[in-house]
Specification:
single chain, 218 residues, alpha+beta, two-stranded antiparallel sheet, two-stranded antiparallel ribbon, 11 helices
């Protein structure tokens, strides 16, 4: 059965769901029952907890609104891009270069005053049978003007960066805290008398037992 795209209304309802809800409804559309869809979506609850959690998601008003907007689950499921599909699409953008789309050459266009050949660089699209759909999808802009055809690809670095974010490639960032003028943080042990004064400034110690309680805290 041919798939159909989400309508603007259905897409808006789908975008309003949480990541877990999106995965849940996607697996429902693929024919899984509620508990199976919950587990496939990455739900952490086990046994009866998974069944209850799945039921809770399925009866959520936003989830219900989206599912009610879908008339035929089998026709609509392929219209929703999965994580793997998104990664494959980004990967093709990151790998595709102009050499996958065009042939480059130097051709002789004449001679100079000394009779030496004059060459000029040129390019042309490869035969359509040699260009993959993934390479075509990597094209961001294709325009024509006085200088001929201009082609622009999606930024491969941006695609690779987005893949890294989705896959968690980036190492945790380390934050260092330093003292005055970039030096080490200094600390100083307080005497009992100094601690009493500090607590009194903070409003503690108006009663003897209250102050002693603060001093006895580990």
């Amino acid at each position: 059965m041919a798939s159909k795209k989400l309508t603007a209304e259905q897409q808006q309802l789908f975008d309003a769901l949480t990541p877990l809800q999106k995965k849940f409804v996607t697996w429902l559309l693929k024919g899984k029952n509620q508990t199976e869809a919950y587990k496939k979506a990455g739900g952490k609850a086990k046994s009866d907890g998974a069944r209850k959690a799945a039921h809770s998601i399925a009866t959520n008003c936003d989830v219900q609104a989206f599912l009610n907007s879908v008339k035929d689950y089998e026709e609509i499921d392929e219209a929703i891009m999965s994580r793997n599909e998104a990664l494959k699409r980004l990967t093709s953008m990151g790998r595709t270069s102009l050499f996958d789309l065009a042939d480059f050459r130097n051709g002789v266009i004449g001679e100079d005053e000394n009779g030496n050949p004059v060459t000029q660089a040129s390019w042309s699209f490869k035969d359509s049978a040699l260009i993959t759909p993934e390479a075509i999808a990597a094209i961001s802009e294709l325009t024509t003007g006085p200088q001929g055809i201009k082609i622009k690809l999606h930024d491969p670095k941006a695609a690779i960066k987005q893949i890294g974010e989705m896959q968690g490639w980036e190492a945790p960032k380390k934050t260092e805290v330093s003292g005055p003028d970039g030096g080490p943080i200094l600390h100083e042990d307080l005497t009992d008398e100094q601690l009493k004064e500090a607590l009194e400034e903070l409003g503690y110690g108006r009663y003897k037992n209250q102050l002693e309680e603060k001093l006895d805290d580990p």
